[in-house]
Amino acid sequence: MIYDEETLYLAQLCENLSRKICGSLIFQQYENTRTKMSQDDTAIAMKANFQKEKEIYEDLSRFGEYVPGIKEQRKALYQKKRQLDLCKTVADFRQAETQLQELLDGVCQQVAQSFSEDVKVNYGNPFFATTKSDCGGNCHAS
Fold first, then answer.
1. Residues 26-69: pLDDT tens digits?
2. pTM for the whole thing?
3. Can you tell me the distance from the alpha carbon of 32 to that of 2, in angstroms, rounded to the nearest whole number?
């Protein structure tokens, strides 16, 4: 890529936008909930338990759906996942993470639409309201 004044100007604008987003209330809430979650011993233990169950399940699932004990292991995995999801600090973090992702998706959509309505944007959230996608198929028909 050739860097000229215009390219450097655009890079500066991107840095400014990034700083604005990092200074936003949504980002601050995200950082606060991430810090709380990382310092919550209960959440850390639940995450470790979930990871352990996930590894066991993945090892079993390598041998197929009909290996003895896989249904019980899947159930145990889902229970650990549910426990992790119900942990307050984890739930708060995921909510803040979703809000930040929605903000970033909105910025990307605005930038793309400033060029053309036909520009396709790949969104991190499959439930984001849009009529365009970059998959090229007709699965997101409007």
1. 999 999 999 999 999 999 999 999 999 999 999 999 988 888 98
2. 0.75
3. 39
Among residues 136, 106, 92, the alpha carbon closest in space to that of 21 is found at 106
CB 38 within 8 A of CB 101: no
pLDDT digits (tens, 9 = 90+) for 72-108: 999 999 999 999 999 999 999 999 999 999 999 999 8
Nearest Cα residue to 107 out of 128, 91, 76: 128
Residue 30 tokens, joined = 């995200």
CA dihedral 96, 98, 100, 105 (to 10 degrees): -170
C-alpha 51: how far from its chain's center?
18
